[in-house]
């Protein structure tokens, strides 16, 4: 209504602003330390490029944390919005901004804005390209020209900071130390410590592996009795890219480690990752740069790892630099994939879209990482030998491969708490350079999405073995998004040492007394309560997950029913019907027509003669048996099995959205069933247990499912807000010619040729 009155000249912009200001809708909520640096009124946010009828009017605000669009207009055609407590519906974190383009329609000029640049024309339009594939567009037709120019320059300046300490996390933590009573979203993050493992307050905390005890507990959990926690790097005296505490063979003395450390790149000595129950260990290390001592040191390290094995088995070394694509190749593939997903208009490239996906090589690299990790699983699980991952610096490819191996071998890392501890151990504390690889400062030539590659590989496993994972694909997607929020220290630094060094310098400059603390304590991303309400965090849970044991009631007592291998059906693994004697026929290697799947020849399950290698035999035997969801899982690597992660890459593309369709419809049905089963279990316990039992064991009031069987909605009918992009909504986030049509979904359903949006709209 207000927008209409402005359009017909019945309401002046000043009066419009005062009216909205009185209603409190044009003032963004700000976090501790957040400062508004510039703003402009009477801005129009474009929803579609073919019509302006859905556009929103409001104020565009730039702060030192995010850009916000504050409007009183409801979002059109959107019945659901997944809420982030740190970011509003129209907000974009500054560290999520990829590129800023200003346009002047009259002069037909456009410019990509960098920091500290001048803008010689008054912009009529602002286009923001985001790192999560969103494109957001604003118009300044009714805004003051100078105000529009200033806000564009402010966004360019604050989204590309010149120094790490200018990122919002430092300002936030600095204010917290000066005023400890202040909280974010009503919650005290406890100085950046441990968040709930699964987003529920009663869940186990995620170990940060910053202390001796965290590593010692992991040694005991895996039964690595011949390994010890080493404190030789305390105070980062040996290496600035290793944690203060890490695990080494018991036979290696601290003096030996100090002596040998100089020979390794970055002084990154061998570091234990995980132990198999058969005694074989997984370790990682950087290359030995001292060629004169290389053989001697290499032999000493291998002998120490051999002695830590109960059978004194040999050590297998994997040179990741030779086996896997370089980080630059991964970045190049990602850029090609991203270009395909943000092409505007999307549908014009569809006739050759599948070939372009294949040519990007992204899915090929996903397959290579999974394949190499699975081959090393064979060495650990079948050959009973320890494995060393070797890499130039030992902090890129080894993070991804070591994590994938552990996900495949250890069911604990397929739970929410375990998966978070894995990332903390193998990425954050092991020195993965998040600052450079995520390019938070917009000036790194070493940007590479290896962490996204890892999450994509995990999603492939989740897609193939949904009952083996406690978390959902929504959880993986939201975790990826969290790397672009500059509040959390988890994904902000190149190493633990950099966090301590930079935060200590910042504390000194701000007169913050640290006491005995080693640097400032930043909020941890694992405290999901800072980002999401309890109900929304339930979307993290996978309703298909089969836990280690299921509680049952017998004679009034709760017991645990253990599942054995024979309780599992091979259908959980998704074996094709043509699997005979562990071999898939050739027809299963070919993708279905018009599918978003790369056509690749398989490596593991191929027709071989009696002289097949041990590796091939291991995979053939494994795939011929029913899956143990709490044992080893191996990826299926044929072309039909390596897929494009559509929820992550297509969620902002309206043309790719399937209304009331997609996997979420099955997810909802399964959630309703799981919730009903949980309710029945609770009823049984209450019925068979006396008042005394209920007093000592109170039943939880909350369901663990987002979709609940006892809600008033008709359980048989899917809610209108469900789509293949759920829980995200592309409306207003990506400017396309149409916001209603789903031509891509029709194409995938079997359209012979790519048709225009208008033609598809006229079809029956």
Structural account:
This protein has helices at 2-7, 13-23, 145-158, 168-178, 212-222, 254-261, 294-307, 320-323, 327-342, 353-360, 362-381, 397-409, 416-428, 434-438, 450-464, 473-482, 496-509, 534-537, 614-623, 646-650, 663-688, 691-696, 743-748, 757-761; strands at 36-45, 56-63, 66-71, 92-93, 97-104, 109-112, 125-130, 135-139, 227-230, 246-249, 271-275, 281-286, 315-319, 386-391, 549-554, 557-562. It is an alpha+beta fold.
Q: Could you give a short description of this structure?
A:
The chain has helices at 2-7, 13-23, 145-158, 168-178, 212-222, 254-261, 294-307, 320-323, 327-342, 353-360, 362-381, 397-409, 416-428, 434-438, 450-464, 473-482, 496-509, 534-537, 614-623, 646-650, 663-688, 691-696, 743-748, 757-761, and strands spanning 36-45, 56-63, 66-71, 92-93, 97-104, 109-112, 125-130, 135-139, 227-230, 246-249, 271-275, 281-286, 315-319, 386-391, 549-554, 557-562.
What are the key terms here?
alpha+beta, 8-stranded antiparallel beta sheet, 16 strands, 33% helix, globular, disordered N terminus, disordered C terminus
Unreliable stretches covering 5 or more consecutive residues: 1-27, 189-193, 195-202, 550-612, 734-764
Strand content is 5-15%
Strand order of the largest sheet: 4-3-2-1-8-7-5-6
How far apart are the termini? 36 Å
State the total count of DSSP E strands.
Answer: 16
The DSSP helix count reads 24
Percent helix range: 25-40%
Radius of gyration: 27 Å
Average predicted confidence as pLDDT: 80
Given the helix and strand composition, which structural class is it?
alpha+beta
Shape: globular
Largest sheet: 8 strands, antiparallel
